[in-house]
Amino acid sequence: MKQIGIGVIGLGEMGLSHANIYAQLPDVRLIGIYDINSALASTIAQRLGTQAFPSLEALLAAPEIEAVSICTPDNLHYESTVQALNAGKHILLEKPLTVDLTEGRELVRRAEQSPQVFMVGHVLRFDPRYYLTRQEVAEGNIGDLIHLYARRNNLLTNARRLRGRTSVAMFLGVHDIDVMLWLMESSVETVYASATSNLLKDLGVADTIMATLRFTSGAVGALEVSWVLPEQFVSGIDARLEVMGTQGAIYVDIHNQGLRVFKHGQLTYPDISYGTQLNGRFIGILKEELAEFILAIKEGRPSPVSAREAYRAVEVAVAIEESARTGEVVRLATEKRAQQP
Questions:
Q1: What is the pTM of this model?
Q2: What residue ranges define each of the domains in the chain, with the CATH number in brackets?
């Protein structure tokens, strides 16, 4: 069985997870990793039995590396991705596609000209709860959609860790924006958002954003995103999705995943879905995402999440940020324009 040679670029929380999973996938050989922190890269490479490359250019020049995961900070996605496209690699780019619409349009153009797989890591599409929601909607089992409500609240420690390099709309909101667009199969027409900044004022970013979206289908959506949950919160995330149709409704709740642990005087709800280990093997939704990327390469399938789809989510996130900043309703592209970034 031919193994796909993989490189991982960026070894923050997500990059480390990608490297750990690739090291265990049977169809993959983790050829090397790169991070600007060379000491960190060397330590991880030694543990995983792979090579720490001295530069991004060196990693991309390695002929045995056929594909890369790009897990750099949001604001650095564009440069790394362009270099990987120039090197002819298959690419799995962590969400968001980019934080700038001009850069995003250029990545869509270049990705669609490339013969290689270009996938954006919108991990919720590989969560069985969201995937089954999509199936129910696509099969018409709850009728025409009337409204969507999505909530994603995260820990203050995560916002502090990112030190203002990205926004709550891009870091968290883009997850649920992508899901809404995936479910609706129509574009967002208008956005109105309001934000508040208190605990994170020193970083120049919003604590919380509330947004109302109107879709070209006539449906409406509400989005709540925040990253100021206290460290003592029982789970690392409080995420929910409500889908209301003319003939039914669907509810997703990720706050309590069915396991509660009380220890050291504190109750916790551990993550059992996104990335955990079972008998020393990594399992979960992120593993499914990476496995789909590899399968697309091996079998010549279309990208599971295209650059064009990911651009649409960024477009809405940028509009949310603009509306929160100006206090005005922001009108987005029509359906026709949204198909032509």
A1: 0.94
A2: 4-122 (3.40.50.720), 125-273+307-338 (3.30.360.10)
